[in-house]
Amino acid sequence: MFADVQLVVFCIAGSDYADVCETPDGKFANKMMEGAKLFESLVSHPTFHGMDFLLVLNKFDLLDKMVESSRLANCEWFNDFDPVVSRHSWQEQSRANNCATMGQMAFHYIALKFKRLFFSLTRRKLYVALANSLDSDSAGAAFRYAREILKWKEEMPSPDEDTLNTTDMYSTDLGSYSG
Ligand SMILES: Nc1nc2c(ncn2[C@@H]2O[C@H](COP(=O)(O)OP(=O)(O)OP(=O)(O)O)[C@@H](O)[C@H]2O)c(=O)[nH]1
Fold first, then answer.
1. By CB atoms within 10 Å of each CB, which of 55, 99, 102, 110 scores lowest?
2. Ligand 1 center to residue 161 CA distance, Å?
3. Distance, CA 97 to ligand 1 centroid (Å)?
4. All domains of the chain, ordered by start, with CATH?
5. Mind listing the pLDDT tens digit for each residue in 23-69?
6. Where is the segment annotated Disordered (predicted)?
């Protein structure tokens, strides 16, 4: 049924780090952690063995706003997120100086967490894009990135494409594929 699948797109909301959901056994748990568990079970499932994955971190607009008031480190999985920030308004200052905003740093950090998890399970590279689905340009950019991945795979089947180097680990550059 999934034999012809070339790329699995897994979508998770960046804002989930500060949200809870009900688990099947009626308890409440952090939504990002539950999402990560689901991701892990899909990636580890024999059906998806050897397949490429693209993680789309959606609701980036919410993440970007929320990390100012609700610490990313409040989510257990992200408890070592500790960027050095100025006491002055970080977002305004960053945007004015063309630096990464707290939300962008949070995105890179979350992307790296998922990349490490994926690599530990598969020894392969995870592709990551961010999206704000309410903005069609941003959502379109994530899907253009998916098409690019498929094209690269067709054009450049490399014998060592399954290996992960440092550049791959950090290949979440916002400018290259997200709107
Ligand atoms: N701000 C913002 N809202 C979004 C985004 N994507 C979806 N939404 C809104 O989120 C709400 C829930 O939509 P979905 O994410 O499709 O639904 P869901 O996954 O069942 O619900 P959640 O668990 O709340 O995410 C809707 O009101 C959407 O319009 C986004 O990127 N940014």
1. 99
2. 34
3. 31
4. 7-177 (3.40.50.300)
5. 999 999 999 999 999 999 999 999 999 999 999 999 999 999 999 99
6. 157-179
